[in-house]
Amino acid sequence: MSNKSFQFKEFTIQQDKTAMKVGTDGVLLGAWVTLNKSTNSALDIGTGTGLIALQIAQRSEIETIDALEIEPNAYEQAVENFENSDWGDRLFCYHASLQEFVKEIDEKYDLIISNPPYFNDTFKALDKNRALARHTVSLSFEELLSATAKLLSKNGTCAFIIPFHEERSFLDFAEKNQLYPQKITRVKGNIKTDFKRSLLQLSFLNETPKIDELAIEIERHVYTEAYKNLVQNFYLNI
Which residue range forms the structural domain that includes residue 195? Predict the structure, then answer.
């Protein structure tokens, strides 16, 4: 993935300092999550370049949008991208691990969102910073969900994108923390391929979730209408 900046319709992501570049997963989550009008505060866990936090800022009038990033270069990059956006007064990044953060912060958030690390079995990345960002050694699903439950307001929601094959175990961990799915979208790269990702939005309310699916492409570089409708407010060429 190139170090060149990534231009969205309303903001630019500089990504030369961080190992984790702009990717489809983050854009999907930031575009897909339901934002309630009553939401006054949001937290993006493992913000990387700041992409999802910036998407939330573009989509809403949420007054406080905090982000959390443990990797030093990514933290610096996120701060830079926040400051260069139109919403710098609403965006703030903490340089800390989630484990540290949850011990220090008494505040509750109405929305918590994360594109979490999920390479459980393959801590073999070429770049150690990329490995830190993408591997569950640095943040397990259990730790993520436990901390989320502590930081989430009573009527708040949380949203994640994870590998499809991890969906059942992730939801089991969530239930142990009294978090239950409100909506689930299962994502496949192509209409003919198997599911690759699960988009999950959860809350403390235990009810039957809305479940649907999304295919990104019909064939290579030919996108489905559903995908285009979802991301059209962000990508320049869709």
Answer: 6-231
Q: What is the pLDDT of residues 179-234, one digit of tens each?
A: 999 999 999 999 999 999 999 999 999 999 999 999 999 999 899 999 999 999 99
Q: Which of 134, 20, 24 is nearest to 77 (CA)?
A: 20
User: Rounded to an integer, what is the distance from CA 169 to the centroid of its chain?
Assistant: 19
Across the chain, which distance is largest between two alpha carbons, in Å? Answer: 48
Number of domains making up the chain = 1
pLDDT of 82: 98
Q: Which residues contact 59 (CB under 8 A, 6 or more apart)?
A: 30, 31, 35, 233
Closest CA to 51 of 101, 124, 1: 1
Q: Are 27 and 230 in contact (CB under 8 A)?
A: no
Residue 237 lies in a domain: no
